[in-house]
Amino acid sequence: MPAALVPRDPDYEARVRASFACQGIMATIGARLLRVSPGAVEIELPFRGDLTQQHGFVHAGIVTTIADSACGYSAFSLMPASASVLTVEYKVNLLAPARGERFVARGRVTKPGRTLTVCAADVVAISGGAEKAVAMMLATLMAIHDRPGLAPGL
Amino acid sequence: MPAALVPRDPDYEARVRASFACQGIMATIGARLLRVSPGAVEIELPFRGDLTQQHGFVHAGIVTTIADSACGYSAFSLMPASASVLTVEYKVNLLAPARGERFVARGRVTKPGRTLTVCAADVVAISGGAEKAVAMMLATLMAIHDRPGLAPGL
Amino acid sequence: MPAALVPRDPDYEARVRASFACQGIMATIGARLLRVSPGAVEIELPFRGDLTQQHGFVHAGIVTTIADSACGYSAFSLMPASASVLTVEYKVNLLAPARGERFVARGRVTKPGRTLTVCAADVVAISGGAEKAVAMMLATLMAIHDRPGLAPGL
Amino acid sequence: MPAALVPRDPDYEARVRASFACQGIMATIGARLLRVSPGAVEIELPFRGDLTQQHGFVHAGIVTTIADSACGYSAFSLMPASASVLTVEYKVNLLAPARGERFVARGRVTKPGRTLTVCAADVVAISGGAEKAVAMMLATLMAIHDRPGLAPGL
Question: What is the spatial distance between Cα A105 and Cα A31, in angstroms, rounded to a whole number?
Fold first, then answer.
């Protein structure tokens, strides 16, 4: 692991999992936190018919939802215990229709920083054990220091 | 209205509303289609506690979901009756935390085209009658011609 | 003008013009600073055959160069006199090939902030007095406070 | 090499190099085409003081210029001999100020397609043999078929 991806908080995994549990939307759509490592997080979403757009694929916004949380928690895993994380912006390319049994968003930090962290995520569809890329995200996250009121869930 | 924003299908509004009704995710999150005009569409989302991220704001991915559909249907409103629409990519800047009583995504076509259409959307939070900008989207949409199988919902 | 777009430095225009004069690339490509107002800046670029891509249009990267400086100086015009500005990221949609007698990038602040400012820019091609949109940018700029060494040109 | 990255034109490298030679901007800024392989292209730019922004770093728009051409030619390398390539849009994150002896943009196809191709590029600064990441691009390119008039340089 590059030196830059050493977490400042040794309890980073518990902190990420506790925050994820406070994201009401994750329970609503049925998303689950898989692997959490320093600067890299995976989130899984099983297909459901009530998450779809008009052609029966998972809506791009829901693909974005798990990609954004995967990026956000990748950044958050490297931050000090007192920091909160907010998304500044992201860009998503939709590579293929989001059809499959389940989807996995794999986020990773590409450039850590005290204030701004740049992350990328790939989202794949998995069907019968085979993976297909459905989306790529490139995102900017911001650490908010010393504003505990921002973070009721943390 | 500029000539370029004349819809090719006079029944564009009915076509947009029928397609929106096929987006399962819109019912799941409680979003509603408001105004539909040539090249411009508005979608409303009341706040709900089960749509939130860890600080209690609506998750950026859900803000993106209504912005994407507002852009997609803005583009779709100008397409011929036989076309389907898919999102190629988008970029979203989150301007402020998404807190408020309800949210409105206002999409508009900024550059129509036979294959690719560029759209923009603003998302505002509304509380006590006052509006606050929470997000901006810049998106590329693609018309799919002559592939009716793509579009069960249309 | 909205309260938020009141410049903190009354000499904002002189400061923007002095910084622009330090951007060596602007002289190299022949770009010129036009209007500077609080939160809005225009830059003009006459067509030149040595700025082109393989079809004879101005290269997208050069269109981006004037759009980025228009956004950057729009943000900079609102910052305190001691701040420097850096571009965090941008997204550009190319709407039409960049052919014309000259090009104007019009930047504007859409969301000012102490650390981060969001800006948008339109780039138009002008030929025979008629304008045509060629690109749209959505950008994030960062104010750097109290690091004068960063800014030899200011 | 994945099957999808097999070039349709066996003379892809000559075609890419001939088109690059028609990009007037590359000579103007002093950029040079390095490696060309199927779906991957590298472009080098030595530092020059007349390519800079106000702090003496290479302007983000010039970093973008070589990244865009690296992405464009990565996509172009896989296209049939009769196609032209245009940039639809891109997003760039600036990771660090562009200072160094020279810069290399490494483009690669992440999702090929008949009409649209998605590419990514990394730009690194090289000084004294050490590399540092300065930018990441995520881009959408479009193949234009059967319009030879578009492409005087090909």
Answer: 10
Q: Work out the minimum CA distance from D6 to partner chain A, whole angstroms.
A: 19
Q: Mean pLDDT in chain D?
A: 94
Considering only CB atoms, B138 lies closest to which of C93, C96, C140, namely C93
- Domain ranges in chain A are 3-147
Backbone angles phi, psi at B18, to 5 degrees: -65, -40
pTM of the model: 0.95
Residue B17, amino acid: R
Residues of D in contact with A95 (CB under 8 A): 110-111, 118
DSSP-derived pairing of the beta strands A130-144 and C102-111: unpaired
Q: What is the pLDDT of residues C56-93, one digit of tens each?
A: 999 999 999 999 999 999 999 999 999 999 999 999 99
Cα separation of A101 and C40, whole Å?
Answer: 49
| Measured distance CA(B59)–CA(A85) in Å, rounded | 13
Which of B71, B86, B87, B89 to substitute to test the interface with D, most D CBs within 10 Å? B89
Q: Which helix (H) or strand (E) holds B105?
A: strand B102-111
Query: In the CATH scheme, what is the homologous superfamily, with its name and number, of domain C3-147?
Result: Hotdog Thioesterase (3.10.129.10)
Rounded to whole angstroms, what are the CA distances from A46 to A99, A124, B59, B64? 10, 12, 19, 20
**Which of D89, D114, D117 to probe the B interface (max B CBs under 10 A)?**
D89
Running DSSP on this structure, what letter comes out for residue A128?
Answer: T
Residue in the block written with tokens 């204030």: A115
Second-level CATH architecture of B3-146: Roll (3.10)
pLDDT per residue as tens digits for the range A41-79: 999 999 999 999 999 999 999 999 999 999 999 999 999
Using the beta-carbon criterion (under 8 Å), do B89 and A93 form an inter-chain contact? yes
From CA B39, how far away is CA B108, in angstroms rounded?
Answer: 5
How large is the ipTM?
A: 0.94
Q: Which of D50, D67, D91 lies at the smallest CB-CB distance from C91?
A: D91
